[in-house]
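User: quick one, sequence for these tokens?
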């Protein structure tokens, strides 16, 4: 019995080592029919059918929905992914596409954590929760804790920064940190295409499907950072493959503040250097006046001025002697 338990434990550990071998096969319409009525929860805990996320209100119009399955609500990698995606693909740009497109996010945590998640990510897309993880399982997504071998492009924070942010969020959340979802669960991205019912469809067995919706592209994560890159998402939606713009991050704010501080210090040094010489001169003058030699100098200058006034009265003032007199008197006083 103990050997059997150890064997099961070893097998479960092996399942979470390295990248998971999953495929990106498209779900069939039959498989989509099976998940169409599964519930997802909004931030108030109200259930909605999964198909309501990708079915337009006017069923006679074409539409496209990118559904992103994230990990738990405290995953720093997924949070950074949504920040990058939101900055590159705002909803206004998506609705202008042909067909009109929207992005929906689904997490595996409790729905009452969605407001916190929106604040942390500044996500501009609607977010739902699937705590049961039925959608994850039936759409072929799996579980792993592997980080993968390379850092993705969408990460504008370093890995240590992302880890620190996630830990801080968890500590701040308290007991809610254990309600964010399965830490092993990874997600993926699925593009749902809705076509008008007037179009002709045939399922794998030749029968008409119950929903006029297909998945035109999908990507399943192989590790905890393996979301489809933003340029790939843009290309799949018919846009260019531009990378997301650089965002204002915590570390970039520190760099900007540091640069500004250096500039301020340089300016202060220059002002101190410019005003320092005059300040030193004034302080030296005050020091000279307060010292014995300074007092003697003041007396010599006073005597010299009196002598010059007398010479001026007598009409015998020699202009060449005016600057020489203080210098000679100073030399005597110092000696």
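Assistant:
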């Amino acid at each position: 019995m103990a050997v059997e338990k150890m064997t099961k434990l070893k097998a479960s550990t092996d399942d979470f080592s390295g990248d998971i071998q999953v495929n990106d096969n498209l779900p069939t319409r039959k498989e989509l029919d099976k998940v169409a009525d599964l519930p997802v929860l909004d931030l108030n805990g109200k259930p909605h059918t999964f198909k309501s996320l990708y079915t337009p209100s006017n069923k006679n119009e074409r539409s496209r929905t990118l559904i992103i399955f994230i990990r738990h609500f405290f995953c720093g990698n997924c949070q950074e992914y949504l920040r990058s995606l939101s900055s590159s693909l705002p909803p206004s740009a998506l609705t202008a596409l042909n067909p009109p497109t929207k992005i929906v996010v689904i997490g595996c945590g409790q729905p009452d954590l969605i407001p916190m998640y929106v604040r942390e990510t500044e996500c501009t897309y609607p977010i739902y929760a699937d705590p049961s993880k039925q959608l994850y399982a039936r759409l072929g997504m799996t579980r792993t804790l592997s980080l993968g071998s390379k850092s993705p492009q969408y990460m504008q924070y370093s890995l240590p920064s992302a880890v620190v942010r996630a830990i801080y969020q968890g500590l701040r959340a308290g007991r809610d940190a254990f309600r964010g979802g399965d830490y092993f669960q990874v997600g993926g991205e699925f593009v749902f295409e809705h076509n008008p019912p007037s179009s002709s469809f045939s399922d794998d067995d030749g029968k008409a499907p119950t929903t006029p919706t297909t998945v035109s592209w999908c990507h399943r994560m192989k590790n905890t950072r393996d979301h489809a890159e933003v340029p790939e998402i843009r290309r799949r939606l018919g846009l260019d493959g531009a990378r997301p713009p650089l965002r204002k991050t915590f570390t970039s704010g520190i760099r900007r503040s540091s640069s500004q501080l250096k500039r301020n210090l340089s300016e202060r040094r220059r002002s101190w250097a410019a005003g320092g010489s005059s300040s030193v001169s004034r302080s030296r003058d005050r020091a000279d006046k307060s010292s014995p030699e300074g007092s003697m100098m003041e007396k010599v200058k006073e005597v010299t001025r009196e002598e010059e006034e007398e010479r001026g009265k007598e009409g015998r003032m020699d202009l060449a002697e005016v600057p020489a007199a203080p210098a000679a008197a100073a030399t005597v006083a110092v000696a």
